[in-house]
Amino acid sequence: MTTFGEDLQMSDDKTRRPSRQEVPRGLAKVSNIIAVASGKGGVGKSTVSTNFAMALLKTGAKVGLLDADIYGPSQPAMLGAVGKRPEMRGDYLIPMERHGLKFMSLGLLMTDDQPVIWRGPMASKMIQQFLGNVLWDDLDYLIIDLPPGSGDVQITLAQQAQLTGAVIVTTPQQVALGVAKKGLQMFETVNVPIVGVIENMSGFTCPKCGENTPIFKSGGGEKLAADFKVDFLGSIPLDPELMACGDDGTPLLVKTTDSSSAKAFIHLAKTFKEKVAKGALLGKNEARNMEMANGNLEVEWPEGTKNEFTPYNLRINCGCALCISEDTGQRILDPKQVPLDIKIGAFERVGRYAVTMSFSDGHNTGIYKFDMLRELAKKQKDSSRESFSV
């Protein structure tokens, strides 16, 4: 199987100067990165991702599609690129183009009948390489088609990419909705805004009379969106032609824009663009900016307030497994063993929900969630008030 190779691994240099998370060169020209997730397999997420991307193209946007379903890549077949191989430019892969859409998939780097028998770390490494070593042109949107679940691939993506937001795909059945909720909650946990919910297979629209029959019920996606107070982006009806297009490698919107499904995708794309254009996708506890100030970590929040954290206070409040017992939840780090003059060597954003840093005592395994920093800032403020009152 062909992969990027050892020379294309992302750098893990912890000796660089403190800075905000660096955008990989391959993503430097991408304005918005959107994850399309489902939680559950079999809901048509890849079909939705492909046609959603094509619909965005139809609205005049510049769009790319990244197939992050490592174990079951399907975009090469859906876009008519089976057996094709992408070009290399130096250390970078050049996305393949089909029907005006630029895309990349592990399916382009391996034979059609070869299974991917990888443990989680290998899948995570592949995602890191896709994010760092695929050279995208100027894009308004990079749509990332995720695998089912909420495991290694999703976590790696949330940590390594500055996601604009996530779109959740579900079908109306209760079993699909139950798993979609977990996928939605996973993104909320890592502070990735939910752009909205799409209900796929939302009834069958008769091509002759136009009547819609809810074969798998209806309204489940809309209820899911209402329960979590996120936008409902729209419904996609069952369409035999949509399925056939997936098999012959020509997306539906390349063939027609007149069918009920094609119109639904165009409506979905316009609704999505309006939502993203509002610019209201900053996580409620996401740091707007971080920098070093007089040896301390200064964090600016969305409302404009700033907090400073001393290296010593951050170090003794580390929540990693070396500092907190995973069995009891009790702190095992003795603050007396931490030098009072400890310094921050480097820091880096972790997705949109946390920051990680290395200290002068060699410790570098802690992930400081922004929620935790908010609480720490509140404790610092309360403590200073108590000291003043005394």
Description:
This protein is α/β, with parallel strands linked by helices. It folds into 2 domains: 17-277, Rossmann fold (3-Layer(aba) Sandwich); 289-389, 2-Layer Sandwich (NE0471 N-terminal domain-like). 31% of the residues lie in helices and 23% in strands. It has 11 helices and 17 strands. It has helices at residues 45-58, 75-78, 120-132, 152-160, 174-189, 220-227, 240-248, 252-255, 260-277, 311-316, 370-389; strands at 30-37, 63-67, 87-89, 92-94, 96-98, 101-105, 139-145, 165-170, 194-205, 212-213, 232-238, 289-293, 296-300, 306-309, 344-350, 354-359, 367-369. Strands 1, 2, 5, 6, 7, 8, 9, 10 and 11 form a 9-stranded mixed β-sheet that branches. Strand 9 and strand 10 (212-213) form a beta hairpin. Helix 1 crosses helix 9 (260-277) and helix 3 packs parallel to helix 4 (152-160). The protein is globular, with a radius of gyration of 23 Å. The protein starts with 29 loop residues before the first strand and ends with a helix. Mean pLDDT is 86; it is low at 1-20.
Tally of separate helices: 11
Helix content bin: 25-40%
Q: What CATH architecture of the largest domain would you give?
A: 3-Layer(aba) Sandwich
Report the CATH superfamily of the largest domain: P-loop containing nucleotide triphosphate hydrolases
Note the run of SSEs as H and E: EHEHEEEEHEHEHEEHEHHHEEEHEEEH
Shape: globular
Radius of gyration: 23 Å
Mean pLDDT: 86
CATH class of the largest domain: Alpha Beta
At the fold tier of CATH, the topology name of the largest domain is: Rossmann fold
Uncertain runs? 1-20
Q: Main beta sheet: strand number and arrangement?
A: 9 strands, mixed
Quote the distance from N terminus to C terminus. 69 Å
Count of the separate structural domains:
2
Structure summary, number of beta strands = 17
